[in-house]
Every structure is written in C-alpha cells, then in structure tokens.
Write a structure and sequence with these properties.
Chain B: This is FAD-binding protein. Chain B: It comes from Phyllobacterium zundukense. Chain A: It comes from Phyllobacterium zundukense. The complex is a heterodimer. Chain A is an alpha+beta fold. Chain A has 3 domains: 135 residues, Uridine Diphospho-n-acetylenolpyruvylglucosamine Reductase, domain 3 (2-Layer Sandwich), CATH 3.30.465; 98 residues, Alpha-Beta Plaits; 82 residues, Alpha-Beta Plaits (2-Layer Sandwich), CATH 3.30.70. Chain A is 32% helix and 25% strand. In chain A, a hairpin with a 4-residue loop joins strand 7 and strand 8. Chain B is α+β, with helices and mostly antiparallel strands. Chain B folds into 5 domains: 94 residues, Uridine Diphospho-n-acetylenolpyruvylglucosamine Reductase, domain 2, CATH 3.30.43.10; 118 residues, Uridine Diphospho-n-acetylenolpyruvylglucosamine Reductase, domain 3; 108 residues, Alpha-Beta Plaits, CATH 3.30.70.2190; 91 residues, Alpha-Beta Plaits, CATH 3.30.70.2740; 54 residues, no CATH class. In chain B, strands 12, 13, 14, 15, 16, 17, 18 and 19 form an 8-stranded antiparallel β-sheet that branches. Chain B has a 5-stranded antiparallel β-sheet with strand order 5-6-10-8-9. In chain B, strands 1-2-4-3 form a 4-stranded mixed β-sheet, covered by helices on one side. The radius of gyration of chain B is 24 Å and the shape is globular. Helix content of chain B is 35%, strand content 19%. Chain B has 18 helices and 19 strands. Classes of the chains: A alpha+beta, B alpha+beta. Bound molecules: flavin-adenine dinucleotide. The site of flavin-adenine dinucleotide has 36 residues of chain B, from strand 3, helix 6 and strand 10.
C-alpha cells in the first residue's frame, strides 16, 4: 500500500513512471469525494492529488482561470465569487448524496467527471468550458493541449478528451477553464400542481420562448416538500429559473407568466431562496437520506423522460424528480437497481444513458455503473485508452471492466 | 505554393487507379463517381486557393451504407481518403491528394428532423450552416454558430473545423452546439455519439471529433441545438483615437459582467478600406473602431446599451453611435462584413491569417505587426473578433511581384509565432490544415504532438484519412516514441508515502 502525494509536476511524472516500472496499477484521487461513485477499484497504490494545488493564473478581464488539479473546487468558487464570476456550468457536489461532507472535490475531479448543474441546458457542462490541460499520461509522459484563450482550434481538443474520463487516460496536473460573470440576479417562477407530462409540456413551452430560461426542473408532489425547508410542500412544483440583469429578469418573468397562465397557479421566489433551491436540486438533496438505496442519474430526450418514470412505476417502487427541462431524471429505487429495466426503457423512449450514482460497493461491482456502449464504440474507447495508458495502470476498471 | 511537402504519392495506388474507380462505381452508381480530369478540376482546391491538386478520383456518396462501403474498401485496399464538405476551408483542410479518393459529402443535403419541443434539429452533414437557420426561422428559431461563410459551408465541415463566428463569444462554437453525431470510421463501422439527450457516457469522443479536421472519421449525421431568436438586437459603433483605448473598453465591458452578442474591432487600414467600399458611415479619423452588438429582451438591450455607452466614453471614445433602427444596425455591420472584399480592392492579393491572443496583449501584438510590416515591406489590415481575442490580420501583397507571396507567408508565420509568444494560439477558427502544419511545433513539443497523433491512431491506425494535414510529421502508429521504464530505475525517495 503506497500513497503518493506529489507536490510538483515532476513528482507526478515520477509516480506514474514508478507505477509503470512496478507494473502496479494506481488509483488517482483528488479529494476522493466520488470514490463511492463509479466502479470500485482494487488497486494497491494511490496517487492523491490534493497537495498539488494552487491557482496559477486568474485574469478576470480575460475570463480565464488556471489552477493545479488538486485545488479545492470550493476554494475556487469562493475566489470567483469575490470577483463577481462563476463556473457557469455550476459543478454539482456529489458529497451529500454519497454520504460524505459537502464542499469537497478538486479541480481535476471536476473535469474528470465532467460536472455540471441545472444550468446545463443553457451553459453546458465542464467540457464546454475547459480551455487547456497539462496531463501526465499512463505512459508517464507530460503533455499539454489547448491553451488559455477562448477560441482555439489548434490540434485535437484533448482537454475535452479528459472530460468524463474518470482518471483512466491520464492525470490532469493543471487545468484552464473559461469563467464567466455571475448573474446579477435571479428569480424562479413556480407553476404548482402539474403532473409529470403536463410539466414536460410547460417546460418545453417556456424553454422554446424568448424568456431565456436558464434552468427548468420539475419536482413531483412527493419530492416537492423535500427542498428549501419544506416551503414547497403540498403539491408538485415546476420550476423555471430566470437570471441576468434585474430589468431583464422582471420583464421575462412577466412575459412567461402570461405565456403559462393557463397551466396553473404561478408563484415566484427570488434572490437567495431561489439560489438555495437550485443548489439543492443540483446536489440531489431530495434523495440525501443517509442510505445506500440505489440512485440513477438518467439523461434522456426531455419530452420522453417522464414516460420512463411512468413505465417504471408500473413494476417497481421508484421516486423521481427532473432537471434539464425534464431530460435529466434523478431516480431513487426503493428496492433493487433494476438496471436492465431502466436501460431497456431508455432505449424504448428515444435513447440516452443511465449512471448508477449511488449503490453499495457490491452492487456497483456487479452491474455496469455506466451505460454500456455498442460494440464498435466500446472497441474505439478501448483503443483510445490503450493510446493513453497502454499498460492499464491508471484507474483500471473504473469505468468499464477491463478498461 | 512554396515549400509544401505533401506525403509522397503511393505508386501502387496510382497504378491501381482504374481498379479503384471500378470498385467505387460498384458502390456508388451513376454520376456519384467522377474520374475525368476536367470534371475533377472544380474540386482541386478549397478556399486556400494557393494550393491545388487533382484527386485520384472523386466520389459523391448519397447514403450512409455507401460511405461505409467506400471507407471499408479503402481501408482494406490501403487507399487514402480526403473528406470534403463545401470546400470553404481556409487552411487547405479539404485539399485533395494525388493518390487519395476525395469523398465529397455534398449530396447529404437533407434536414432529417426538426424537434421544437426538444429544441434540436437532426441534419445531414452537407446541409449548409445557414440552411439550418432557414429551416427553423419561421418558428422563431436559429442555429447560433455563424461563420461568415455560413451561406456556403456545410455543417459537416463546421464540425470538422469547430467553426465559430461573430456570435460565439456569447453562444459558443460548434462544439458547444452539437449534441450528437453519426460517423463512419475508416473501417466502415458506423458509430453514434450522443443524440438528442445531453452528454454521453464514456470518453468525450464528440469533443475529440469536433475540430479534428477530417482525420478521425466521416460525419454522416449531425444533431444540433437550435435556439429561440433573441427578441431584439442593437449595435453601437464606437471609434477610438488609439487601439489601446479600444482594447481597454472591451476589457471593461466584460469586467462589467456584460457578454455582448458580438464585439468586433477594425484598425485604421481596415476601416478605410471598408468605408471606401460600402460607405457605412465609419469615422475616418480614428485608429480603432468597435462594433458592439447587444441582443436579448428589449429592456435588457436598452439597459446594456447605456452601460456600454458609458464604458466607451470613460475609455476616451471619440465617436459613439447607437443604432436606432434595423437598417442602421445592418449598416454598421455592412462594413465589417465586407472587410475582406474591401481589402481585396486595395490590394491585388491578400493572405488572411487567424490567430488568437489574450485580449490584453492586443497593443503589443499590433505594435509587433507594425514592425514586421516594415521589415517585410508589406501592408497589413486588421479585423478582429475583439471579444474573444481572435485576430484576422490581412497581409496585402501582389502575386505578380516575384517573391511577394513568399514574403507574405513568412510575415504571416511571424505573426502567428508572436501570437503564441504572448500566450495565444496558432488558429482560432480556420484550422491547421496544410497551412499551419509546419508551425505546430511553435505551440507543441514532440510529446504533445505524439499524444495527439496517438488519438489519430486509435481511430485510424493506417493513417488513411486526410493524411498530410494538421501534423508536421507522420509517425507510424507502431513507432511512436516507445518509453521503457525499468524496474527501480526511477527512484523518488522525496515523495512522501503513507
Ligand atoms: C469567405 C470565408 C469566410 C469564412 N469565415 C469563417 C468564420 O467566420 N469562422 C470560421 O470558423 N470559419 C470561416 N471560414 C472557414 C470555413 O468556412 C469553415 O472552416 C467551414 O467550417 C468549412 O466547411 P466546409 O463544408 O466548406 O468544409 P471543407 O472546406 O469542405 O472541409 C474542411 C475540413 O472538414 C473536413 N470535412 C468536411 N466535411 C466532413 C465530413 N462530413 N466528415 C468529416 N470531415 C469533413 C475536411 O476533410 C476538411 O478537413 C470562412 C471561409 C471563407 C471562404
């Protein structure tokens, strides 16, 4: 059992080269906040990035931030907030859902797991904002890709390649992200009492309008009371978030209220309460229950997703709520994960993918945690892994058995 | 063009030409295979017209099955393939090779599905960029990335080049607006990445494909996001006595939390050329002109216009005109949009460069360009996507004067080196292609480049797709720098363990 905690880029290279020379697979961890997510690893050795930290470049006027991969995301968010800026993709915090503390997680982990939040619809995920990386590959070689400017098509975009790779291609040492101004103000319109299918239609109307809705979510009746201290209990809540300059937010709110007048009663929440609400949706607070009951994160075509939930309910006890205009479903199973049933229904309703984000270690070891890929795509992914990490020493099996 | 080394034509392929043509005819019937020299001439270059080369044969498939069979045949028979969309690449990305099949995707021109509730359109790769907007406009929607070539360039080419336009500061590049792809690998295998839903699991192959310049696979279907058109748009035309002031104004706008729909800058030579050409009403006594467009709800645009106006005057603007009508807004843009042809009127030839810099380095880079302009004895005019630091220096030369093209090329390379030196990159939107291939080592060392080539190897281990583009030297996949670390050779007692 060896844990390396490198403090320099050279030490990261050396640690990987040592692993190569010993033919010893290693686990890469930031803070390890997502250790309970994905396939469990059985490596003897660990490279922990948490001491390779610090901001290396922050230029608010240029909208760029570079930091070493072990830097705490919470720290970076504070720094940005002090300058009126933010990661516009709103990285979610898996800590509470996975039974850990909130506010952990590193910059490297953020990219490696491609985090994002309710603003995904409008602003994308981590991969949409990464500008450049420095990486130590599984070959023990340090390479860089991209740069620090927002418009760049020089060579392949290996920065995006690192997104969602779960530490299986290389260890990011330093990352540059595009940052953007934080919205001046926000308001949430809440339509009360809609069934899931009605909510999907209402959200589609709102998102297809010129209201510039930044986030759209639906909390069915049994979930609605589990956010912001129960303020929304008593009926389903369909939520539309408006952000920007105050006069614009007010104007759009009025327009949307008119547009959705026939859908149901509309109330609004503003400022800090609105922010807290979206943060709780982002971090799946309704399912933070101190258990290991299986939780799925399902991405589907927005207008199809409620059909998945309705169909599942015929055969199993499930609890669900929706983000991303209905296209992101958070599903909590009351019993077994029902992986095959969930995935068969996704295929039936227009495709997408399901990730088992919470389950006991044994369940995660036995089931494909990530959506299985068709053969040619799986083979291509395997070839890519081999090009970055031919000896298979970085997080082997973290995403897919054998890769 | 001088000094361009393309991979040596493979004699065995050349000698098999008639077999290859016959085999392709069996896959793509009728006029889908073009092998007559005269008919192939139209394909002999893309928009980087200084390079010309007739292809081995041209194929215009119409179905995915045909693309798959063509590629499978080429893979099995070691024949190179160059994919081509509309041929508007400015970096020679679609330049044919003497011993390669030119796979033209223009017959894939159907819009397959428009899904308003989910706000996506599924289209074939040969549909033009503007064609997507045209198809959804009547419902108030549009496709956001808007390269100036949007009337002609194909969405498949946009994916391959990760194209952007005036809107991309606020709305992102192609990479941020494509949700899914169907593509065919060189082996003929068809794979789907993403779809109408958001993100995918596994590696971000969609991210790798976008901007891969036709080297990884052939795109046969694209799913894009469509957006509701902003309620209104207004523009400001702001002149400054110095480019430093204009640059500071741009920085202050962004620091003020405002992301304009578009923010473009022109320098004195570009302003004069454009004004002489279209009479847009540009001030002629300024060193730098900004055109700043704000879009969104009417109240928001009004609010932001007054904020931007104040920032402009605070930075010493000598003129600031706010558009009061759609005609006036269009007039502001007319000069900017005509800048390239306008420069074409004041010089027999010009070379359009494309580099990106951190915005605050603009004064330094402009000064550097002035020095280089004297050194080479050639004029340069600048138009510039000011919001994101993407420069388009136009180097004016006369191809009839011996050596001027060569000088212009060297001048251009020096400008790009300068961009990299100040923390920028070699290309912001036009791609590396053949044009900037030899400059890649300015930005990347051998390990960086090898890792990129390794990605190529995962997709196309025989290097049959678009060889000779992007990378200065092609290693075979098997011989890429092998690293051996022997047991115990790397000591590191200094790393703490517990
Ligand atoms: C006047 C003018 C203005 C321009 N303005 C801009 C601008 O503002 N912003 C900008 O970004 N670019 C601009 N460009 C450059 C060019 O239009 C873009 O790069 C465009 O995306 C190329 O599209 P195309 O269909 O013409 O591709 P082509 O030129 O045919 O090909 C370009 C590359 O894409 C590959 N390719 C094409 N189709 C496919 C496919 N289906 N599958 C795989 N690979 C494929 C080719 O192999 C080649 O490497 C401009 C060009 C001109 C001539």
């Amino acid at each position: 059992m060896t844990t390396f905690t490198p403090k320099t880029e050279d030490e990261i290279v050396e640690a990987v080269q040592w692993a190569l020379s010993e033919n010893a697979p290693v686990e890469v961890v930031g803070h390890g906040s997502k250790r309970n997510l994905g396939r469990p690893l059985q490596t003897e050795h660990t490279i922990a990035m948490s001491e390779y930290s610090g901001v290396t470049l922050y230029d608010p006027d240029e909208l760029v931030l570079s930091a070493k991969a072990g830097t705490s995301v919470a720290e970076l968010e504070t720094l940005l907030a002090e300058n009126g800026q933010a990661f516009q993709f709103e990285p979610m915090d898996y800590g509470p859902l996975l039974g850990q503390a909130a506010g952990q997680g590193t910059f490297g982990g953020l990219l490696a797991t491609n985090l994002c939040g309710p603003r995904r619809l409008k602003s994308g995920s981590a991969r949409d904002h990464v500008l450049g990386v420095r990486v130590v590959s599984g070959r023990g070689e340090l390479f860089k890709s991209g740069g620090r400017v927002v418009k760049n098509v020089t060579g392949y975009d290996l920065s995006k390649g690192m997104a969602n790779s779960w530490g299986t291609l290389g260890i990011a040492t330093e990352i540059t992200f595009k940052v953007l101004p934080a919205p001046e103000t926000e308001t949430t319109l809440i339509v009360r009492g809609l069934a899931d299918d009605e909510a999907a239609r209402a959200m589609a109307i709102a998102m297809g309008s010129s209201g510039e809705v930044a986030s759209a979510a639906h909390l069915p009746v049994n979930v609605s009371g589990r956010v912001i201290d129960g303020v929304l209990k008593g009926g389903a809540s369909t939520l539309l978030r408006l952000e920007g300059f105050a006069p614009s937010v007010n104007d759009r709110a009025t327009m949307l209220k008119g547009l959705l007048a026939s859908a149901g009663t509309i109330v609004d929440l503003s400022g800090d309460t609105s922010r807290k609400l979206w943060q709780e949706i982002r971090d799946v607070i309704p399912f933070v229950d101190g258990t290991e009951q299986p939780v799925w994160r399902v991405s589907m075509v927005p207008m199809e997703a409620y059909k998945l939930v309705a169909s599942l309910r015929m055969g199993a006890a499930v609890d669900a709520f929706y983000d991303w205009q209905g296209g992101l479903v958070w599903l909590r199973m009351e019993g077994e994960p029902e992986a095959e049933a969930v995935r068969a229904l996704i295929r039936k309703y227009g495709g997408g993918h399901a990730t088992l984000v919470r389950a006991s270690t044994s369940v995660r070891a036995a089931l494909p945690v990530f959506e299985p890929q068709p053969a040619p795509l799986a083979a291509l992914s395997k070839r890519l892994k081999q090009q970055f990490d031919p000896s298979g020493i970085l997080n082997p099996g973290r995403m897919v058995a054998g890769v | 063009m001088s000094g361009l080394l393309m991979p040596k034509a493979d004699d065995s392929t050349m000698s098999r030409r008639s077999d290859i043509v016959t085999a392709l005819r069996a896959i793509v019937p009728g006029e889908g295979v073009v092998d007559a020299t005269n008919a192939m001439r139209v394909f002999e270059s893309d928009a980087l017209t200084a390079y010309r080369q007739l292809p081995l044969v041209v194929v215009l498939p119409q179905t995915v099955a045909q693309v798959s069979r063509v590629l499978k045949y080429c893979h099995e028979n070691n024949v190179k393939v160059v994919p081509r969309g509309s041929g508007t690449s400015l970096s020679g990305g679609a330049l044919p090779l003497e011993d390669a099949v030119l796979l033209v995707m223009s017959r894939f021109n159907q819009i397959l599905e428009i899904d308003y509730p989910n706000r996506v359109a599924v289209v074939q790769p040969g549909v033009t960029n503007l064609g997507i907007t045209n198809a959804v406009e009547h419902e108030g929607f549009y496709y956001a990335p808007d390269p100036s070539s949007q009337i002609a360039c194909s969405i498949g080419g946009n994916v391959a080049e990760n194209s952007g336009g005036v809107h991309c500061l606020k709305y992102g590049l192609t990479a941020n607006n494509v949700l899914g792809l169907e593509m065919v690998l060189i082996t003929g295998e068809v794979v789907r990445l993403g779809g109408k839903h958001l993100d995918s699991e596994g590696y971000d192959l969609l991210g790798l494909m976008t901007g891969s310049e036709g080297l990884l696979g052939v795109v046969t279907e694209v799913t894009v996001r469509i957006l509701q058109k902003p309620a209104t748009a207004r523009a400001l035309m702001v002149g400054f006595p110095t480019s430093e002031q204009a640059g500071k104004c741009v920085a202050d706008i962004i620091a003020g939390g405002i992301i304009p729909g578009g923010m473009e800058m022109m320098d004195r030579p570009a302003i004069h050329a454009a004004e002489d050409f279209v009479h847009a009403g540009y001030p002629l006594d300024v060193e730098a002109l900004l055109i700043i467009e704000l879009d969104g709800p009417v109240v928001e645009v009004d609010h932001l216009i007054s904020m931007v106006e104040a920032i402009a005057y605070k930075n010493g603007a000598s003129t600031c005109v706010i558009s009061q009508s759609e005609e006036e807004r269009m007039a502001f843009w007319a000069g900017r949009k005509a800048a390239f042809p306008a420069v074409g009127r004041i010089s027999p030839d010009y070379l359009c460069m494309d580099g990106t810099i951190p915005r605050k380095e603009l004064p330094k880079v402009l000064a550097g360009m002035r020095e280089l302009s004297e050194k080479y004895g050639l004029r340069v005019a600048n138009v510039f996507h000011a919001g994101d630091g993407n420069l388009h220096p136009l180097i004016l030369y006369d191809a009839n004067i011996p050596e001027e093209l060569h000088k212009a090329e060297d001048f251009g390379a020096d400008i790009l080196r300068l961009c990299v030196k100040v923390g920028g990159v070699l290309t912001g939107e036009h791609g590396v292609g053949v044009e900037k291939r030899e400059l890649m080592p300015e930005m990347f060392n051998e390990i960086d480049l090898n890792q990129q080539i390794r990605v190529k190897c995962a997709f196309d281990d025989k290097h049959l797709l678009n060889p000779g583009k992007v990378f200065p030297q092609l290693h075979r996949c098997a011989e890429l720098g092998r690293m051996h670390v022997h047991r115990g050779q790397v000591p590191f007692p200094e790393i703490p363990r517990f």
